[in-house]
Write a structure and sequence with these properties.
Strand content: under 5%
Largest sheet: none
Low-confidence stretches: none
Number of helices: 20
Helix content: over 70%
Shape: globular
Distance between the termini: 16 Å
Amino acid sequence: MLFNSYEFIFFFLPVMFIGYFLLAQYRYIVASKIWLILGSLFFYGYWNYIYIPLILGSIFINYLIGSQLSRQKDRNLLILGILFNVLLLGYFKYTDFFLENFNLFTDSTIPLPHIILPLGISFFTFTQIAFLVDAYKGKVNEYSIFNYMLFVTYFPHLLAGPILHHKEMMPQFDDESNRFKNSQNIAIGLFIFSIGLFKKTFIADNFALWATNGFDISHKLYTLEAWATSWSYTMQLYFDFSGYTDMAIGISLMFNIILPINFNSPYKALNIQDFWRRWHITLSRFLRDYIYIPLGGNKVSIYHNYLNLFSVFFIGGIWHGASWMFIIWGSLHGFAIVIHRVWKDLGFRMNSFLAWFITINFINITWIFFRAKDMDSAIKVLSGMFGLNGWGDIKITNFLHNIGNSTEIMLYFIVAIIILMSKNSNQLADNFRPTKKIALAIGLMLALGILSLSKVSEFLYFNF
């Protein structure tokens, strides 16, 4: 089930909301948690119910291991728990990729099983690895299976994050003051949800038309077309994923549960390190706390530190998908972060505008590998961007006309204002005041978002 669907907006969310607070109001605390768990499992299984046993099996095994780690700091058990999660993710996500490349390099003909990737497995795997490590370090003590199931399955974050920590969630679920409806939280939650819905259906899905035309349909791209294609995907990805996160945060806030911020105006970043402090913040936090620091972080020799930095982004690339394109993308970011660290170590500085210009263009170019299905597709776009195919006779307005509308021209003005000049959704939420203008803005964004549901599309990170 998608956040951007009639079923979710007009049926699932109202039913979950009413049922949860009715049970909480009459102090059926355990029942209210079970209500959220069952609803979340229904939400997850709506796409494909055969994977419900998979997530339940993963939850029970991690709960048992985590409970034992809380009592006894057994390093071997921790390693076993991490291996279980990594192997489970590896089987579903990377089996076809490894077999395909094994066949390619050895001239073998092993048939590919074409395993369907369960929704959200990358996210709930990282969530549970973090739980095991925190349990081993004595940072969590969870002895209730219902609490743990709720922590993992909680539907606003289940399919595409944010990646959560047990210690930041369970105190909120156990807080008695959160068991009653809060009109302020409902209003802010609806406000953030409407921003996210507008981002996804009105902005991201329209840019998707242009990006798809350039990456998947056009056989050759001239310079303007290629740059339009790359920037369209750059905008599509940001507004798609940040839109999902806004919707998740907004929905959760209606239940009085605060999810961590996942985006903070990343396209305003002045360097690659700054970008990763602003983009997919909970993933960056996970990679830092559970990979970079255990590898030694910056408390090693300078060259070892550079290797650690590169390794983190290489692993991050692989986590995103079973494709050489993701490996290239992650490696490029790994090289960039190392270059940035060398630059800082040497004490160099750069003009702020130039730093932003280089950073945003690097991000835009590397997203090409993130989006391209194969190297030929990436080269097609890159060769067009750097003038190898010439400017051509096709003007940008004709290219827009070829995909059926010129909405993108207006969208570029909108996103330029949103990205570079306006406050982001986190800042807007912090300064929220219930006024007539805000009510009008919510109504307008919801209307535009709902009217755009006729062309419903999955969120991009559902595939990761």
